Amino acid sequence: MNSNDLIILGEKIALGESRVINWSIAKLYTSTKIDIPIIIERAKEPGPTLLMTAGIHGDEINGVEIVRQTIARKINRPKKGTIICIPILNIFGFLNADRVFPDGRDLNRVFPGTKTGSLASRVAYHFTQEILPHANYCLDFHTGGASRFNAPQIRVNPNDEPLMHLAKVFKAPFIVMSNNIDKSFRSTCAKMGIPVLLFEGGKSLDSNKYIVKHGVDGTMNILNELGMLGDNFSRHASPTKTIIIDKSKWIRAQRSGLLHVKIECNKHVQKDEFLATITDPFGQMRFKVKAPNEGYIINVNHAPIVHQGDAIFHISTNDSVADASEDELH
Description:
The protein has two domains: 6-225, Zn peptidases (Aminopeptidase), CATH 3.40.630.10; 249-324, CATH 2.40.50.100. The protein is 20% helix and 35% strand. The chain has helices at residues 61-72, 91-95, 119-130, 161-170, 185-191, 209-225, 324-327, and strands at 6-8, 11-13, 18-27, 33-42, 49-54, 82-86, 137-144, 148-156, 174-177, 196-203, 243-252, 257-261, 268-269, 274-279, 286-290, 295-301, 305-306, 311-321. The strands form three sheets. A five-stranded mixed β-barrel has the order 8-9-11-18-16. The chain has a four-stranded antiparallel β-sheet with strand order 15-14-12-17, with no helix packed on it. A two-stranded antiparallel ribbon has the order 1-2. It is globular and about 75 Å long.
């Protein structure tokens, strides 16, 4: 066996080969097998291995579309190294248009999983044992949950300078400082020493061309940085500066009722700027929601009805523009 051969799920893939491996994880009640397609492209020249994942939550369509476009446009054919694409990791949730597994578990809260645990935990375990160790870098694509629309952003653990460099290379409009969550995919990558960029953009059960473009362009920027981008593609620098958000907070509904949002996500607002109104269905109450501070709105709740205490906007409280000298692509 050649030392450059990739052995994944019992399959051998040599340099220069392309392969689709169907990872069989479980069966439906009908005994129908459920497979997760894994698309692998290897260049003839050795190099790093980049793993791209989406659909950890089955209702997050934007991430699936980002990885799909990467494959369809042949961006995943590297100049050197290997690119492994998994457009839908939670195939059960995708089939049900649901965030979680049939057992009710959130796949992104059970990593690294257990061999004999719940269905979600078993998938996390085999993924962590058999696929993740091959990766030198990971790109993981998500959206906001439920009706909450996220501005396109990369989430980075604070004080991780190598990862911050890659986040700046990606060139999303925002970089959000965010601690790793216990038992998440990102936390498991960190413990294994694998740099992972978590991209957030848009909302569940929605496909947004603007969000998808940021994801695809950012992927090409990372591939360019790693020397893996094909010669027929070019880097995609953002026309605007990347904003680094060190701290942020949620603006919560002070009343229950109908929510009427008056601003767009991504917007920079001033203190006391008018953001939304909350009304009752009977024309008796109209409450104005105002910005508590100057900052960037990086998440907007698109739900038409809210309860008192619901999160309706996510606003930065401490932000800065990425340093231009560090922000350049290499």
